[in-house]
């Protein structure tokens, strides 16, 4: 496994063999196909962080269902901020890899 | 490290986001034109109604073209949600003016994606979008021809009826 990106709470890897990615959420590791990776990216993009600060999201929690509802995650505000960075960083590394490949 | 992303996806991921935004815009256009068709129908402007039904269908086709392009190239297209469609208009002229504004907005949006394609060197999508650049030019010309009719004929009383009958001819054959 090659490390793609490491944020404060999460780490992403690309598998050496096989066509998949691994996300390490500290307590849980999940395997994602490219298609699932895109879906994950979209879900994280859609999270409206502002709502965590205006009180619209009362409890400051986000529930994310991933990989056709196979996994469920609950993130707090700090984790969501980190998650957004994490996804950006992961895709930036993938893009960099495309450029040098 | 092998390029897994490129193995799966032929277009740039950020361009994919913009294309998904464009899907929403085309769906929105389609719904706007449908509302306009309804207004025309209620005001006994049959030819204009027909024009906007047709226009609405075309916008949906544009949307589907982009939708399939994303999925065919390994991306994920998202089915759009459409909201806040205005159904209140004061006149047919206002409808055509609004339609032209809408087309100009879409043209700008398409051009913006082309510029981003150049920046990110996504030739595949840039080439795909050339059809839309051309289509937008024609769409603007069509609606402008309708507005010229208002300048020419006015829209009081019988003139409006006559103008309505000319609407089928504003499309380029
Ligand atoms: Fe369109
Ligand atoms: Fe159009």
Most extensive contact:
A-B, 17 and 15 residues
Class from secondary-structure proportions of chain B = mainly alpha
Helix content bin of chain A: 40-55%
Give the integer mean of the pLDDT values of chain B.
96
Which strands sit side by side, in order, in the main sheet of chain A?
A: 1-2-3-4
Strand count of chain B: 0
What is the CA-CA span between the terminal residues of chain A? 17 Å
- Kindly report the name of the CATH homologous superfamily of chain B: Ferritin, core subunit, four-helix bundle
Number of domains of chain B: 1
> Rg of chain A to the nearest angstrom?
14 Å
- What is the overall shape of chain A? globular
CATH class of chain B: Mainly Alpha
Structural write-up:
The complex is a heterodimer of chains A (about 100) and B (about 170). Chain A is α+β, with helices and mostly antiparallel strands and about 100 residues long. Chain A has one domain (about 1-100). Chain A contains 3 helices and 6 strands, in the order ββββααββα. A 4-stranded antiparallel sheet of chain A has the order 1-2-3-4. In chain A, strands 5-6 form a two-stranded antiparallel ribbon. The longest helix of chain A is centred in the C-terminal third of the chain and has 24 residues, at about 75-100. With about 170 residues, chain B is mainly α. Chain B has a single domain (about 1-170), classed as Ferritin (Up-down Bundle). Chain B is built from 6 helices and no strands. Chain B is elongated. One fe (ii) ion binds next to α2 and α3 of chain B.
């Amino acid at each position: 496994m090659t490390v793609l990106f490491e944020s404060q709470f999460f780490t992403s890897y690309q598998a050496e063999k096989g066509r998949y990615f691994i996300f390490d959420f500290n307590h849980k590791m999940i395997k994602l196909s490219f298609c699932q990776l895109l879906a994950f990216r979209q879900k994280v993009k859609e999270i409206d962080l502002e709502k965590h600060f205006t009180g619209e999201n009362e409890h400051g929690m986000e529930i994310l269902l991933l990989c056709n509802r196979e996994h469920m995650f609950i993130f707090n505000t700090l984790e969501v901020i980190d998650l957004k960075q994490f996804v950006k960083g992961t895709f930036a590394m993938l893009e960099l890899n495309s450029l040098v490949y | 490290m092998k390029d897994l992303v490129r193995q799966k996806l032929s277009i740039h991921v950020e361009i994919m986001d913009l294309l998904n935004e464009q899907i929403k815009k085309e769906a929105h256009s389609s719904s706007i034109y449908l509302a306009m068709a309804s207004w025309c129908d209620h005001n006994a402007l049959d030819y204009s109604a027909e024009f906007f039904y047709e226009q609405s269908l075309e916008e949906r086709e544009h949307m589907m073209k982009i939708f399939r392009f994303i999925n065919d190239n390994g991306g994920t297209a998202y089915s759009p949600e459409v909201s806040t469609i205005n159904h209140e208009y004061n006149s047919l002229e206002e409808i055509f003016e609004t339609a032209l504004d809408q087309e100009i907005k879409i043209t700008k949006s398409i051009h913006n994606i082309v510029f981003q394609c150049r920046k990110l060197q996504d030739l595949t999508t840039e080439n795909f979008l050339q059809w839309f650049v051309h289509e937008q030019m024609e769409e603007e010309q069509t609606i402008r021809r309708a507005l010229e009719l208002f300048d020419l004929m006015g829209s009081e009383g019988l003139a409006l009826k006559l103008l309505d009958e000319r609407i089928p001819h504003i499309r380029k054959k």
